[in-house]
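Subject: Sanity check before I submit

Could someone independently write out the structure tokens for this chain? I want to compare against mine line by line before I put it in a report. The sequence has 339 residues.
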Amino acid sequence: MIGATGYAGAELMRILSGHKNASVQHAVSKSFSGQNLSDIYPSFTGRDIPLEQMDIDAVTKDCGIVFTCLPHGTSAEVVPQLLSRGAKVIDLSGDFRYTDAAVYEKWYQRTHNAKHLLSKSVYGMPELYRDRIKDADLIGNPGCYTTSAILAMAPLLKAGLIHPGSIIVDAKSGATGAGRASNTALSFCEMNENVKAYGVGTHRHTSEIEQELSIAAGAPVTLSFTPHLLPVKRGIISTMYATPSNGVTTAQLKDAYAMYENEPFVKVYEDSLPELKHVVGSNNCAIGFVLDARTNRLIVVSCIDNLIKGAAGQAVQNMNIMCGFNESDGLSIYNGKND
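---
Independent answer below. Compare away.
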């Protein structure tokens, strides 16, 4: 685990420490090396997990899978070294989620230093790419906002039930989605009893959602995406609006979402809408919809825990698939079950 002390990294450490088929050999933290993880997160007390500086040779010698929870740009420098030494990598930054380096460079405002690996990387959304994930050496683990939006809208576009150019994504996230670094805008007094939009028209997850929904639609998709910060620690609720194709019925919408019938972590509500409390603490994505005949508009609501299904849980799903484990291993407790 490289980057073990950020919010997503710590959640990964929590899941992996209880995974029956995995053990953490190295927990790397540049900022806290020499300490124990329990010094940073006291909830790990009783589990001695030393934090260390990064040693690429030691990591690749001891580990078959390496999770990289590093800032965008830094992953592109580290991941090639890991792959060249034979490790498989699940990267939680945005560096390996894109098929086109030019799109990444436009939205992230930086040069991509490992363009040659983009054709090798697999977008790590099991519900859409399970067959490719199982044989992959490099996974670009999806973003949190993107997971909630893509899982909700991809079935509708695949089935041709909505107009691709009509999509609006209005999403709201808990403060952990912005990371652990100090930021005045994320302080208690700024966040409490407040909701605000940010990154309007410019948020980098727009491009990731458009990429994957374009693949689902079989044609370019351009959409409006507005993220908001909620005064809660974790969870994402995305409300999406689209114009249905002529004559679309509720039965057809249910048939489209039937692609998730056997998915362990996607729950489609038929007669109600999901809420944050339905998913926080779980690896689930909960989806509900309303077909509004009066306005000829489809409204879809999708909820996830941004640190689990939106990051660490989905990363473990990918690891399980890559290693041939049961996909729910280490995650069933996050699904209201026990292993």
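---
OP: Matches mine. For the report I'm noting this point. DSSP finds eleven helices and 13 strands in the chain.
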